[in-house]
Amino acid sequence: MTPTQSQSQVQGGPLRVPGDRWRLQIVHRSAFRYGGPVRSSYNEARMTPENSSRQTTLRSRVEIEPAATVHAYRDYWGSTVTAFDLHTPHDELVVQAFSVVEAGPEPHRADPLGWPELALPDVQDRFGEMLRPTPLTSIDEPVVRETRAVVGDAGPREAGHAVCRYVREHMEYLTGSTNVKTNAMQAWTSGKGVCQDISHVSVGLLRAIGLPARYVSGYLHPKPAADIGQAVTGESHAWVEWWDGGWHGYDPTNSAEIGNRHVTLGRGRDYSDVPPLKGIFSGPKSEGHEVTVEVTRMA
């Protein structure tokens, strides 16, 4: 396939955007440069926004340069994956995703379950993967005890919010302070990190107190009062969802509910399940990696 044929999804959407929803255009570009010709590479991109009750993907495509053989599928966690491999020599790889999405607040949900219902065996079995710690989300017991004391007698939904606020109060957002391999305890101990770290700590503590929780990857428009038509530098972003009878999303980095500035790409146990781009290659080492995200509010 040619790059522009790699993946194209077009769906009918409303002609007018409801007042509580934004229509966002996102251009996400990743470029790798190598020290010489790379002979072959195998890659996975998770750059296609989802469709849900909160979000409608109107258009989405992933372009690859040089042209690659492409296969699109839905992974175990429900994220759309664009898998591609290259077998012609190349010294640069560029993956660019274009999307137009309508996003809004989460729909109203019924009252949450109580702790006894969440502790039932069928719930524990159903959400086992979202209750167990992972190497990136594991939290030491002293921190868990402190968090339980903060939560106190709160119900599950209130406890979820309390955990996220507690994490944000104790962690400073600081770009460049960590990397993709930093785990939750390392970030917590240092007291700083980026959205990935704050979300890993939140997920780990939510699970530790008995709430099934998952890591969410996506984008965030940085301006709450964005002008229509103005392209701005956006962000790859991360937040959390916990289950208390239904999934509830929350952005602990910004201490905010998920709304019209958030665009969801995928979910998993932690970042390792949903990286925007990963792969292996045969050839000289990479000499640089550049990522840009441009977001435009269209309506």
What does this structure look like?
This protein is α+β, with helices and mostly antiparallel strands. The protein has helices at 115-118, 121-126, 141-151, 156-170, 184-190, 195-208; strands spanning 8-10, 22-38, 40-45, 55-65, 69-74, 80-86, 90-103, 172-173, 192-193, 213-220, 231-233, 235-243, 247-251, 256-257, 262-268, 277-282, 286-297. It has two domains: 3-104 and 275-297, Immunoglobulin-like (Sandwich); 115-273, C8orf32 fold. It contains six helices and 17 strands. The chain is 19% helix and 40% strand. The strands form four sheets. Strands 1-4-7-2-17-11 form a six-stranded antiparallel β-sheet, with no helix packed on it. The protein has a five-stranded antiparallel β-sheet with strand order 14-13-12-10-15, covered by helices on one side. Strands 5-6-3-16 form a four-stranded antiparallel β-sheet, with no helix packed on it. α4 crosses α6 (195-208) and α5 crosses α6 (195-208).
Helical proportion? 10-25%
H/E series, N to C? Answer: EEEEEEEHHHHEHEHEEEEEEEE
Estimated share of beta-strand residues? 35-45%
How is the main sheet built?
6 strands, antiparallel
Mean pLDDT: 93
Unreliable stretches: 1-16
Q: How many beta strands in the DSSP annotation?
A: 17
Spatial order of the strands in the main sheet?
A: 1-4-7-2-17-11
Might you state the CATH topology name of the largest domain?
C8orf32 fold
* Alpha carbon gyration radius: 20 Å
The coarse silhouette is globular
How many structural domains in the coordinates? 2
Keywords:
299 residues; alpha+beta; Immunoglobulin-like; C8orf32 fold; 2 domains; six-stranded antiparallel sheet; five-stranded antiparallel sheet; 6 helices; 17 strands; 40% strand; disordered N terminus
